[in-house]
Specification:
Length: 206
């Protein structure tokens, strides 16, 4: 992809790069700033960070920040009686404006039976999904750090678990690499990874 016409923003086009980008997700100890993780670029500079309940005081609530520490997204798990009766848990990501959540930008459906391999985690871009029921899907194993995010046409947006990335996971449980394809929104990708981290009880959980 090249040029602004090929960008696919969800959060903002400023987080879309014209070339393939390799990022490193590094977990923080849960006793440090509420746990969570930081995301580094190829120069080992922090480009994103995610904090969980240690800072917010509630499980199922996450904040994604940029490299300067400014909040970008507020992500929360929906609750209530209807949610309890649903076959899916639902998460929603909201833009942060003036320090407060504003309009929703994506929603994620988490199957309650994550062990069922045929159940993909589906993501819709707000409002109501640009392509009907869902726009993106997560396939593979987050636990093994071998998964991908793809669009409805099967185009891979981001991937963890091939080549160098797989070797990095084997070397340490505290970091892994994610490769984001050109034009796609890196903040959106990290937001999805933050939800997956929480679902699987890793660094963002209480």
């Amino acid at each position: 992809m090249g040029g602004s016409s090929n960008l696919v923003p969800v959060v903002s086009k400023i987080f879309c790069a014209s070339s393939q980008t390799a990022l490193t997700v590094r977990k923080r100890p849960q006793v440090v700033n509420g746990g969570g993780f930081v995301v580094l670029n190829g120069r080992n500079s922090v480009v994103f960070s995610v904090v969980g309940c240690g800072v917010l005081g509630a499980n199922g609530e996450l904040i994604l920040k940029d490299g300067d520490g400014a909040p970008i997204l507020y992500i929360r798990k929906k609750g209530g009686m209807l949610q309890a009766l649903s076959a899916h848990n639902r998460w929603r990501g909201y833009l942060m404006e003036f320090g407060r959540p504003s309009k929703p930008v994506f929603s994620l459906r988490e199957p309650r039976q994550l062990a069922v391999s045929s159940h993909r985690i589906k993501i819709s871009v707000e409002p109501k999904g640009r392509n009907g029921d869902w726009d993106y899907a997560v396939e593979g194993s987050f636990d093994e750090k071998a998964f991908s995010i793809a669009d409805r046409k099967g185009n891979v947006v981001a991937k963890v678990g091939s080549g160098e990335e797989k070797a990095a996971v084997a070397a340490s449980k505290d970091f892994y690499r994610v490769v984001v394809q050109p034009g796609y929104d890196q903040a959106f990708v990290v937001g999805v990874i933050a939800v997956l981290d929480n679902i699987h009880g890793e660094s963002t959980t209480c």
